[in-house]
């Protein structure tokens, strides 16, 4: 850790100096001894480079310590997709800007998948590598980037259209597994069940479907709804099958074609079909 004494320098020059020192090799930390009042702006520098910030006010000087924050660790080895990204998303959502997270796994593919998704979750990849036969990435929580152009549409919502129902268990599970992953990435999720897809929402149906690697379909659906997903059931498709609102599981509601078309027409929605 580099130690520098620069009595007499004033803010904002002290912050400029600190940043230059860090850029030129003090990437493991910096201790500055300054004149009182010169520490203004240094906390922003520390946050920018992921350092913990501490100030000691002495009689005639100030000692500023910028030290590497201890990164939290998350091992996602053995987690079934999309488990790793869900765990990382949950962890990042509770972290403050500048805090870091080391994610590791025996699966390099899982780590690469996480790395691709990180910018969507207000994070950045600081470092990649291997450690004890596991691939890892070091992530840092960052502020949400502002849109640079009025013409750029930020797709922060996901519309999942499901038309196969319990007759295709793989697609039925994918509907809620992908929705769960999207919510964990900070996306607002709306699920629209239409055609045979409405069978998923009928009371008693989803509990009959069980994936070998996941909980029963009805429990997964309840979990996704409790996470905040809105689930619509096509009114026309339900009526065609003799289903009414009272036949639907809690947390789902009938909706007409206008709702579906409005959702499809919203440019802030990314649309996924199952």
From TrEMBL:
PROSITE patterns: UPF0033 (PS01148). InterPro entries: DsrEFH-like, Sulphur_relay_DsrE/F-like, TusA-like, TusA-like_sf. Pfam families: DsrE, TusA. Signal peptide: none annotated. It comes from the Archaea. Residues 74-98 form the UPF0033 domain. This is DsrE family protein. It comes from Methanobacterium veterum. The lineage of its organism: Archaea, Methanobacteriati, Methanobacteriota, Methanomada group, Methanobacteria.
């Amino acid at each position: 850790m580099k130690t520098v004494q620069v009595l007499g320098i004033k803010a904002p020059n002290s912050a400029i100096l600190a940043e230059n020192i860090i850029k030129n090799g003090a990437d493991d930390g910096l201790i500055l001894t300054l004149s009182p009042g010169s520490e203004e702006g240094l906390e922003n520098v520390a946050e920018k480079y992921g350092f913990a910030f501490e100030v000691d006010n002495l009689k005639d000087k100030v000692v500023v310590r910028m030290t590497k924050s201890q990164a939290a660790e998350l091992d996602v080895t053995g987690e079934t997709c999309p488990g790793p990204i869900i765990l990382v998303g949950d962890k990042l959502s509770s972290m403050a800007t500048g805090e870091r997270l080391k994610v590791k796994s025996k699966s390099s593919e899982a780590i690469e998948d996480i790395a691709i998704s990180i910018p969507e979750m207000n994070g950045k990849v600081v470092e990649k590598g291997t450690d004890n036969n596991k691939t890892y990435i070091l992530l840092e929580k960052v502020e949400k980037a502002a849109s640079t152009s009025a013409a750029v549409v930020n797709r922060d919502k996901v519309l999942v259209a499901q038309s196969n129902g319990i007759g295709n268990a793989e697609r039925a599970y994918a509907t809620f597994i992908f929705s769960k992953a999207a919510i964990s990435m900070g996306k607002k999720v709306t699920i629209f069940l239409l055609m045979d897809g409405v069978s998923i929402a009928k009371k008693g149906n989803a509990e009959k479907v069980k994936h070998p690697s996941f909980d029963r379909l009805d429990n997964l659906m309840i979990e996704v709804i409790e996470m905040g997903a809105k689930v619509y059931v096509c009114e026309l498709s339900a009526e065609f099958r003799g289903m009414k609102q009272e036949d639907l599981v809690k947390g789902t509601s009938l909706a007409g074609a206008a709702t579906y078309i409005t959702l499809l027409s919203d440019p802030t929605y990314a649309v996924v079909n199952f």
